[in-house]
Amino acid sequence: xxxxxxxxxxxxxxxxxxxxxxxxxxxxxxxxxxxxxxxxxxxxxxxxxxxxxxxxxxxxxxxxxxxxxxxxxxxxxxxxxxxxxxxxxxxxxxxxxxxxxxxxxxxxxxxxxxxxxxxxxxxxxxxxxxxxxxxxxxxxxxxxxxxxxxxxxxxxxxxxxxxxxxxxxxxxxxxxxxxxxxxxxxxxxxxxxxxxxxxxxxxxxxxxxxxxxxxxxxxxxxxxxxxxxxxxxxxxxxxxxxxxxxxxxxxxxxxxxxxxxxxxxxxxxxxxxxxxxxxxxxxxxxxxxxxxxxxxxxxxxxxxxxxxxxxxxxxxxxxxxxxxxxxxxxxxxxxxxxxxxxxxxxxxxxxxxxxxxxxxxxxxxxxxxxxxxxxxxxxxxxxxxxxxxxxxxxxxxxxxxxxxxxxxxxxxxxxxxxxxxxxxxxxxxxxxxxxxxxxxxxxxxxxxxxxxxxxxxxxxxxxxxxxxxxxxxxxxxxxxxxxxxxxxxxxxxxxxxxxxxxxxxxxxxxxxxxxxxxxxxxxxxxxxxxxxxxxxxxxxxxxxxxxxxxxxxxxxxxxxxxxxxxxxxxxxxxxxxxxxxxxxxxxxxxxxxxxxxxxxxxxxxx
Length: 606
Prior knowledge:
The chain is an alpha/beta fold. The chain has helices at 18-24, 53-67, 81-93, 111-117, 125-137, 160-165, 175-185, 188-192, 198-202, 209-216, 224-240, 257-266, 281-294, 335-345, 362-368, 391-401, 440-452, 466-474, 504-517, 528-531, 535-549, 555-558, 564-573, 581-584, 589-592, 599-605; strands spanning 5-10, 30-37, 108-110, 141-144, 147-150, 246-251, 272-278, 299-303, 320-326, 346-357, 404-409, 418-424, 457-461, 483-485. It has four domains: 5-44 and 433-485, FAD/NAD(P)-binding domain, CATH 3.50.50; 53-72 and 222-424, Vaccinia Virus protein VP39 (Rossmann fold, 3-Layer(aba) Sandwich); 75-200, no CATH class; 504-605, ACP-like (Non-ribosomal Peptide Synthetase Peptidyl Carrier Protein, Chain A, Orthogonal Bundle). Helix 11 runs parallel beside helix 12, helix 13 (281-294) packs across helix 19 and helix 19 crosses helix 23 (564-573). Residues 500-575 form the Carrier domain.
């Protein structure tokens, strides 16, 4: 028998590669081998079947067992607290207007002209509109069709510190949070003009220390954290029923609060694969380091924007049994699109498991409105003026997207400010006994290719990661006439040559970049954006460079760097020996923060 030359095509059934695959499949005397992810392979017993009323009852029992141990007074149940917070928010919303606008009552103003007068950049329009909304709700103005009419003098609104002094002793338990708002309000003018980056106010140096400190000084007044424990126990219960490997994806994992809860319960289970993702590369990098320290070999880490095209980010349909999120989806610009992407990545019968807060106050908007992506909800067509959604609204959108058997915990939603939402991707109807792939379109394309060329076959690997591709290729005995078309690049997985670090400066710089971006192999010519640069990791990187090399970087310098080489050359250009270290010490906390008139340009770039 004549041994035919082979053409091995990775991801050959994808939309971007099928035309090439179809053309190559017509070649005579060629054996076509399509290589797809194992997650694409159809298995009717693969999914977790938890539709039964018995399973729902188990979930209720898990919730009850945890809630019996917890007595939490919700923030909304503190007598008069929301009223006093309303007054503080009114005061802080008026800060940017005092002595600068609204000089007299009954006067009319155009919103765009007012923003120009107050030097407020366009990207802060949603924040500005929140101020106007608060002032309108309190009877100080009315706005309609971009026209503002002043009804009462804003100058008469008392300062927030005076209002805080009038809090009762019980209400003063929340003084750290109110003081944080007052601090944020003192920065509004500089933020809105573009003088300093917004997220630097609440995430100094790109980290969460300040917010964590505020939380530690206040009573636990939300059940969000408790329902994180409820979800972790439910996931553990699901996993214990599954004999085959269970693949879990966490989206927007951030500081790994929910991740930690879940891993503490399932770390000793053998049949687990846990994919940690976030839109911020710095979070992914930190989680990867923590996993290595704890020996979590069943974890992998990727950057993911759940509201964007999943295939372009390296994710496939029907890839996960469980997809979890922890107060994340409300931060996207389209909950519907995000849920559709979740459904797309779930196997039939897979579980979408969420913890969602559904009670919020304006104080949250006025603080966290300074964080990236907070105001995305304002462009989401299914939401109005609130970032959160009521449980009934969540249930409706989940069902509209195509999930079923939605379970909401707690059942008495008014007794909580957060809950667990479980929903399921339906099984397919009229199952094809000859089905090879979950994706019906890809399955049909494969059948067409095989009808044309009987030498066309399909094989599966764990993923398209370099390690899995290398493992697969090592088992093949390639002849000089065999051809291989990789998923991203027919010749190389990565084009940059890895250059050995030969000096101490570059060694230290590479270690900093590895820590921030979580990339093991860094080349001197790597582009910073391709490494995963975002606004928070940018702040963190500048802080680390200042600490390690005693160099001062402003944002204008920073956004001029395109590659790792550019940063290294900049550091080398600074004559460190001539620097008096005492002069390097920052005279005030304000100077220690990153600030420049070029911030708006940088944020557009990122």
